[in-house]
Amino acid sequence: MRADVCDPKDNAALLRFFAALRKLGASPPEKAWGPGVHVYHVKISGQPLTLIRNNWSVDIDGPDTVVERVLLEFENTSSASLAARRHDADCGPHSLPAAAFP
Question: pTM of the predicted model, to two decimals?
Answer without folding.
Answer: 0.77
